[in-house]
Amino acid sequence: MRELKLFDDPKNVKRLLVIFFASLLVLLIVDFFIHKHADFPWEEAPNFFAAYGFVSCVFLIFIARILRPMIMRDEDYFESPADDRK
Amino acid sequence: MDLTPYAINLPPGIVFIAGGLLIPMFSGRLKSIWMLLLPIIGFITLNTTPAGNHWAYQFLDYDLILGRVDRLSKVFGYIFCIISFISTIFALKVNDNVQYVAGFVYAGGALGVTLAGDLVSLYLFWEVMAIASTFLILARRTKASQAAAFRYVLVHIFGGLCLLAGIVLTISQTGSTAFEHMTLGSTASWLMFIGIAVNAAIPPLHPWLSDAYPEATVTGAVFLSAFTTKSAVYVMARGFAGTELLIYLGAIMTSIPIFYAVLENDIRRVLAYSLINQVGFMMCGVGIGTALAINGTVSHAFCHILYKALLFMSAGAVLYRTGKIRCTDLGGLYKTMPLTCLFCIIGAASISAFPLFSGFVSKSMIISAAGHGKMTVVWLLLQFASAGVFHHAGIKVPFFMFFGHDSGIRTKEPPLNMLIAMGLAAFLCVFIGVYPQPLYEILPYPVDYVPYTGAHVVGQLQLLMFGALAFCLLILSGYYPAEMRAINLDTDWFYRKGGRGLYRLVDTVFNNLNRACDRMLAQGLTGAVNRFAANAPARASRWLLTPIHRLKGRDGEAVDNFRRGIQYAFDAGVVPIGISAAVSGLFVVLLFLLR
């Protein structure tokens, strides 16, 4: 079986990251040159969506980390002792 | 091309159900052709049927309308036929008639619900869906799937009963079985709303979905992802459009599941949570209820069915080849499953609403509708959920299956039929994303919406790409919650643990009651009666003979001795005939006196 080894090469990973960060930069710059038609005033703030996207995801992970100890259980949590006897 | 003379004049739902039940009669290639023909017949029938009510029948005292065809029902009908076709291609190599029959009857139920013009046939098809879909979970034939299917069907029986109660009340109050728009207020409307909400997986009634879908068969999950929730979206859009409560429920529904999806280890469970999140957008759109919002809801349901099926197919292909589906067990599969990986990424890009992919042209309508309505909090929540979707469904699913740490698993692409099915779905995701016009043209209301504006494209790309940046930074810093072999508690805890608690409570109460009754009645009372009956002759003799003995002028010790003598005679079974005769005689006299 032929194997793809695209990302085994650190150079390729680096290339991907460079493209990724470059596109982020482009997005930040382009934002200043587009015409906005907003429903809310903050949508017109420069790079609002970039900030909101970043903050949202950090918030998501922050809350998920707090939530985890509360809701995480062993995989056999719901199995009753009676099931084991069978 | 007019196909009317060739079209089979049966409601598409019935074509699916009847045709599905005939599947076991066929074998080999003929079976495949038969199964692929059914969705095509359904699609053509639907396409050639003009708007209006068709296929009206009399059942008991009710007029059943099996074909209310209008712009709203047609879109859902089309996509149900399309996804049945694709799912069938995906399932062609499965050698299990149970799954085929269940799949088609289930899809037929969904089509029946979509085209039902009255409440009675709506309910009948609703229950057909619930029962048939259960077999797609049972068919996995594992202990976990049996248990999940049992819980699944119980929840749906509850939902179905709520719907039935609402329908019965409505019919008894109005005398009409028509299924029309309702306002939430009366008991009947609330009961129907709850019944539909169960199928739509609105929190806190949602956990059946994330519980059962990941336990279904590889191909069953693809069917399941399409029909139950989306037919509920249709029924909500038909019955409760503009219900304000749905806006808030929908907004909550988009947000809560993404926390679970981030923590979840089972890939198909991640997809199940993201399914709930996506249906949240649709519920929100139904709640807003404007033409733009309903168009957004319907088109989002259309696109969602395609990309969610695509994601379930790619996860299913991985499960099919590796037998594993947990993030902790997978990784690095792009090396040997590049096509599956590509299709998964297309599904992920579509669900994340990347420009040029299908989610972008549909979800944006719902969010814009919230914006036009100046619903600040709802809008912020929907945008938060959009970023969150990309985080878990867009990045996490492909990343942990196909990239991430190399699990060392070396396998191969799934069979050709699976690749074709995924390819078809992927093509449609991209096609709709690039060229949404055909979809926009079949929506319920005329579309006056342009998804590709500079502000919109850049805004969406910023939201997603900077979300991705957060993912990268959090993964690299080690702050991202590590994948763990564990489960996460959801509201199903209440009936899974609560059910066990109830079982224990009932066990304690009723078994103790049983034991108490046993002691009192079986052992106590029966023993007493027994002892009484055994002693009765001796006692009766004593009662009857002692007064006579006294009449003879004897008393004190002589009477006691006489009484002991009687007892002794009965215990030893040596009763003189004279006494027996005397007792019998006295008994007869007594009867005569008491007569």
Secondary structure blueprint with pairings:
The complex is a heterodimer of chains A (86) and B (595).
Chain A: H1 10-30, H2 48-71, E1 72-73, H3 81-85
Chain B: H1 12-21, H2 28-48, E1 52-59, E2 62-69, H3 71-91, H4 97-115, H5 119-138, H6 143-174, H7 187-200, H8 207-212, H9 220-239, H10 244-263, H11 267-288, H12 291-322, H13 338-351, H14 358-372, H15 376-402, H16 416-434, H17 437-441, H18 454-477, E3 487-488, H19 493-551, H20 557-572, H21 577-594
Helix pairs in contact in B: 1-2, 1-4, 2-3, 3-4, 3-9, 3-12, 3-16, 4-5, 4-9, 5-6, 5-9, 6-7, 7-9, 9-11, 9-12, 10-11, 10-15, 11-12, 11-14, 11-15, 12-13, 12-14, 12-16, 13-15, 13-16, 14-15, 14-16, 15-18, 19-20, 19-21
Query: How many separate structural domains of chain A?
Result: 1
Amino- and carboxy-terminal Cα gap of chain A:
42 Å
Radius of gyration of chain B: 35 Å
Largest interface: A-B, 50 and 56 residues
The sequence of SSEs of chain A as H and E is: HHEH
Specify the helix fraction band of chain B: over 70%
- From the structure provided, what is the oligomeric state, counting identical versus distinct chains? heterodimer
**Helicity range of chain A:** 55-70%
What number is the mean pLDDT of chain A? 86
Characterize the main sheet of chain B: 2 strands, antiparallel
Shape assignment of chain A: flat
Q: Describe the global form of chain B.
A: elongated
Characterization of the model:
- The complex is a heterodimer of chains A (86) and B (595).
- Chain A has one domain (7-72).
- Chain A contains 3 helices and 1 strand.
- With 86 residues, chain A is mainly α.
- By secondary structure, chain B is mostly helical.
- Chain B has 3 domains: 1-240, no CATH class; 241-488, no CATH class; 495-594, no CATH class.
- Chain B has helices spanning 12-21, 28-48, 71-91, 97-115, 119-138, 143-174, 187-200, 207-212, 220-239, 244-263, 267-288, 291-322, 338-351, 358-372, 376-402, 416-434, 437-441, 454-477, 493-551, 557-572, 577-594; strands at 52-59, 62-69, 487-488.
- The radius of gyration of chain B is 35 Å and the shape is elongated.
- The mean pLDDT of chain B is 92.
- Chains A and B meet through helix 1, helix 2 and strand 1 of A and helix 10, helix 14, helix 15, helix 18 and strand 3 of B.
- Strand 1 (72-73) of chain A pairs antiparallel with strand 3 of chain B, so a sheet runs across the interface.
